[in-house]
Amino acid sequence: MLNYYISEFKNWWNMTMPAIINEDSFLLIAGSLFLLGIVTKWIVMRNYGRLIRKAENINQTRNATIRQIKTKYDSIKQVNGKVENPRLFVQRNINKCKIMHISVNKINNIINWCSLFIMGVAATVSFQLYRASPSKMDWVSYLVLGTFLGVALEMVNKMMPATEKKTELLYVLADVLENGTHKRNARERDTLIDLVPEPEDKEKVVYREENGSEVKTAEQKQMEEAAREEEVLNQVIGEFLQ
Known about the structure:
Layout: H1 2-20, H2 26-56, H3 64-80, H4 86-94, E1 98-99, E2 102-103, H5 104-108, H6 110-132, H7 138-159, H8 162-195, E3 206-208, E4 215-217, H9 218-241
Helix pairs in contact: 2-6, 2-7, 2-8, 4-8, 6-7
């Protein structure tokens, strides 16, 4: 029985695949999958970036996702007095985010499937060409091109870190829900103040000369005075020796 189904599958494969996936349609299929992976990854990155901006202005935003999370958080806080783990609460709700009724996590994984499908199409076309004419090396070019497109798409996936954007959204939204936007803005101002360097020592404070516009430091002035004193001392010694 199993052998029968295996033979039927082989017959279907030999009749259907060459008609759908061949060297004429290879570039169209591989190119479409490549563009699909890039577009879906860009959509996910743009969605997370937009949610971060909306979360920072949570009191005035009209975004349905952010407002829904805030409403659930306020309801739980009103009933229980507090939310035990705000980050876990936010993470669970972010994982449920959707774009056009499709989960954002699933859209984010489309690029991985596109890489696999591109390599699968390349392997299928290469195998068909190899069976048709084993002596020719045309199948190698299709295999190499498909592998290159698959690896390039995977590199694009690594260069567009949606996971980091998702983590940033998690921390921003949890912080705003727990502490409010005012405290968050106050902490950001304090952080900027801490980053400002301390003033230099009084001996090195830059000042402007009274008789000109040249700017010098106290240290430079001391060096010039030492040089003048040394010059005067040399003149006195020279006169004494004469």
